[in-house]
Design brief:
The protein is mainly alpha-helical. Helices cover 80% and strands 5% of the residues. It has 4 helices and 2 strands. Helix 2 crosses helix 3 and helix 3 packs across helix 4. The longest helix is centred in the middle third of the chain and has 54 residues.
Amino acid sequence: MIDGFKKFISRGNMIDMAVGVVMGSAVTSVVNAIVNSLINPLIAMIFGKPNMDGLLAVTFNGATVSIGAVLGAILNFFIIAVAVYFFILVPINKFRDMSEALLVKAKLKEAADAAAAAASQPEPEPTPEEQTVALLKEIRDELAKRNA
């Protein structure tokens, strides 16, 4: 039973989920700072109130309907969506595309090298660890070229 629990905890999915929760709370604090220090003061400049909670509020029979609070929540959602897209998804997709291109390049080079080696003399095939190291070196070199 304990072995099963250890496997469950140490699986990649569980660790990825934990990292996601931690990063989500970090992003939440950044978004809250942007909203409280940038967006709400801009709203206060335009509408005269520091947030949209009291904006377009209607009270009838002791019940208050606040359309401004809904608009504020929608605005917060869009701010989070823009931040996640431009600061997380776009860089990850660029990195993924770059690594896929380097992997294809490495495979083509490996195939060419294998053809040349087969023509001259047989060489032992590199281990998966050696292939991984070679690919990581190519990625490092490509990133260094792009940043230079």
